[in-house]
Description:
Blueprint: E1 11-16, H1 20-31, E2 36-40, E3 53-55, H2 56-65, H3 68-72, E4 76-77, E5 80-85, E6 90-95, E7 110-112, H4 115-127, E8 132-136, E9 138-145, E10 150-156, E11 162-172, H5 179-184, E12 188-204, E13 213-218, E14 224-229, E15 233-239, H6 252-260, E16 269-284, E17 288-289, E18 292-294, E19 300-301, H7 309-328, H8 339-362, H9 368-374, E20 418-421, E21 426-428, H10 429-432, E22 438-442, H11 452-460, E23 464-470, E24 481-483, H12 488-494, E25 499-502, E26 508-511
Parallel strand pairs: 1-2, 1-11, 2-8, 5-13, 11-18, 22-23, 23-24
Antiparallel strand pairs: 3-7, 4-7, 5-6, 9-10, 10-11, 12-15, 12-16, 13-14, 14-15, 16-19, 17-18, 20-21, 20-24, 22-25, 25-26
Amino acid sequence: MPQHVSAGHDTDVAVIGYGPTGLTAALTLAGKGADVVAFERDQDIYARARAVTVNDWTMRIFQELGVDDRIERVIEPQRALRWVTYDGREVMRVEHPPSTLGTRNTRPRFYNIYQPAMEAELRRCGEELGNLEVRYGAEVVAVEQDADGVTITSRDRATGAETTTRARYAIAADGGSSPTRKHLGVEMLGDTVDTLWVVIDCKVKRWWPDRDFLTFWTDAERPVVDIALSAGNHRWEIPLKPGETEADFPTGAEVWPLLEALGVTHDDVEIHQHAFYRHHVRAAETWRRGRVFLAGDACHLMPPWAGAGMQSGMRDAHNLGWKLARVLRGELGEEWLDTYEAERRPNADFYTGLAVGLGRVIKQEATPEEVAAMNTVPENTVTPWEPPLTAPPVLSAGWLRGETGDASVIGRMVPQPVCGDTVGTMDRLDGLLPDGFVLLGADTDPAALLTPEQKAGWDALGARYVAVRPRTAYTRGSGELVDLEDVLLPWLARYGVRAVAVRPDKFVAAADTSGLDVPAL
């Protein structure tokens, strides 16, 4: 037992499932000093590429974990999205602006991925952490808990031997069928769509025009998803017609006519594999039972049209992970864990609704008014408007003080330009900010704007106070930053604020305009 794990426990946190969600949870927790044991029933990475994209929010999480440069080597920038009819009429297009969360004008907003390759790189990152143990081939068969911890019973799938592991907390990231959710007696509410889809993954043999668009071929009978994956892979997702079943497509030979009907030839691709699935719109009635938390597909399932299913799970894991790590260290009270579902459920619901709406477009069920509404710029916006699919991240509920909305900075993720520090070091903002809670002041010391009571509250959270100076001015003290790209100060001015309180996940929790008191739990 590691020295700092409390008596009676084998580890701090048990992570059940080691796919993208479980990986993110384990890397977040272990990276912040927690001891983690992960259980994965399979020996190898699931070979089928399920998710197809990540965006800059997910990449910022990877940046915090220190793995973004490595992940960028196995993913590729995405060009744009388009919805097109078979006769060539473009119904809708979403262009990808540069990221606001990385170096300005040099980092993409969206990336194509090949999920097995991305997972493999994340697993290699985990192997470098001495406080993360992964037990492959270990199927969790029982989860029991009491006031002091969680007892995990796992069975070695090769030998049948059973082992019990005692953890202070557990995170279930074991997929949509989640045995852990069933152990906890948590119901999954919602619907499953009857239509069966075939997913066809191919290896590219030659380039074809506009291959780098993510294209949704809209059709009432046979809508198709046509998307470039990274590392020379390409995917089509095609619904089966009434009367067609999996049995009609036992091998690639039977699948080929579906591709040929789209104009795809043997000169273009080689079929790598194909699989079948149905779309779900489902969510767990609760994401927590005592010391056990659900994350990812274990607590929400959405159609694929917004490219947010896997990413929502990874964001669940990061949100829970940074809080739980600090609770384990005694820096935050256990009541902080109640903010996990309060913050993540609305965001998962948003992307689920967005995916359903985009699905109506691709299946030609949306009215022209609905399509137009998705691209209509609201009146009197303060923030430069972007379609919901590409808009920068926001929190709509949780540990925040003040109202959210277009005119408010509350709940927004602070942009991340290249900044400089007082001794001339230049880096992206997150690389220069201290880990934890930070108050940023617009050309002012934010501590000077606080009452003694407010400062005592932030000091209790270990907050740091950072003045952001314009690049045309001198710094005036240690710990200050310079806005080298003229991004941060104009961003704060847009919302009329002089100081903001930034959480460890880089969302704004409070501002001087609505009060810089520590938000209530």
